[in-house]
Amino acid sequence: MATAARDRRLPPALPLATLIGRELRAGGSERPALRYGHAGFAKRGEDYFLVKPDCLRVPGDPASAFSVFAVFDGHNGVSAAVYSKEHLLEHVMSALPPDIGREDWLQALPRALVAGFVKADIDFQRKGEVSGTTATLVVIDGFTVTVASVGDSRCILDTQGGELQLLTVDHRLEENAEERERVTASGGEVGRLNLFGGQEVGPLRCWPGGLCLSRSIGDMDVGEFIVPIPHVKQVKLSNTGGRLIIASDGIWDALSNEAAAQACRGLPAELAAKLVVKQALKTSGLKDDTTCVVVDIIPSDHLTSPQLSPKKNQNKLKSLFRRRSHSSVGKLGGKSASIGSVEELFEEGSAMLEERLGRNLSLKAASPPFRCAICQVDQEPFEDLMTDNGGGYCSSPYAPWGGPHLCLDCRKKKDAMEGKRSSRSTACR
């Protein structure tokens, strides 16, 4: 599974610094404008979304601006979705080294997203509540888009050049064979709901708990093999921009990626989100909460043309996402030649923390050696360390952790997710 995930991640064709330099040398401003809208209908009231277009990497410096958009689809209650909306971004940002430049910040972001998702899961489970949530978090910095996701909420990219790309992976046990293998290898049981008489019905679920997803935030009653480690993909758009459609499974159960994109082409973002929801309801009715966020990444030269009146300018914006070919969803693998092409910078979906946190980046400002890579708590060198002998603190029969420092609680979480121990057991022998 891990090998397959690594094989899917292709190295960038060009260094990130080169791509950022292109932004500076290209006509118009380095930063595109964002236009966004959202819409939804509630059946259970468990969908939430986050829109933060005015984040700053460096406080007080407008040049360090970035934007965040997210969709959370809760289940078994709203607590996990509400908590993630309020705290997930905070946990991600705390895992990013301070005082680093934009290039290093973007390179460190995928790893920080992993740490932030795991931290959110640990903190929420400490509350003792049993709800869970999907999470699809999108960070936009200039023309660079980074998406982290667990569950089956989805983000697609529709570009001016006619490429339609899926930026997330669905973590549904029914469709994802790799995740089924991982869950069973970690100690979970995968099967359908059994009725009286032995008849099996419905989608594949993980037991105990009966969850259809293999990754989520929360769900402490299901088992630690349901992990919060996100699939992360980072891409660099060309200077023609693109449109992101981020939505819960109430949309994707009714519409294909192509149908969702087609439903709103030629429309501004706010109306586009409403049309996607309307089309989903028209197709299958209100069977689930439906939430959609549409974000247009618009080059500055499409905004400030002195030859166009405001009305004509508006029409030009609408036409950005009108012309499309019927190309299939897929990866470009770092190829960039045609207008509207996308550079793939990073992709990783492994559920193993050693692979996600162990690939340390060469940053100018590294974390202190005994700061936990997940919860960001500084410790004394001897505090809460796992040893391989019987003395001192808790002993561990497993191979030493080869990645960055983890505190005792986060190490237990890591071992539990890999099926090595229960993270709920805190007793030491």
UniProtKB/TrEMBL annotation:
Keyword Metal-binding attached: yes
Single GO molecular function: metal ion binding
Annotated protein name in UniProt: protein-serine/threonine phosphatase
Catalytic activities: O-phospho-L-seryl-[protein] + H2O = L-seryl-[protein] + phosphate; O-phospho-L-threonyl-[protein] + H2O = L-threonyl-[protein] + phosphate
EC number: 3.1.3.16
Keyword vocabulary terms for this entry: Hydrolase, Magnesium, Manganese, Metal-binding, Protein phosphatase
Species this protein is from: Sorghum bicolor
Domain of life where this protein originates: Eukaryota
Cofactor(s) listed: Mn(2+); Mg(2+)
Enzyme class: hydrolase
Pfam families linked to this entry: PP2C
Keyword Cytoplasm: no
Family: Belongs to the PP2C family.
Boundaries of every PPM-type phosphatase domain copy: 28-297
Gene3D superfamilies for this protein: PPM-type phosphatase domain
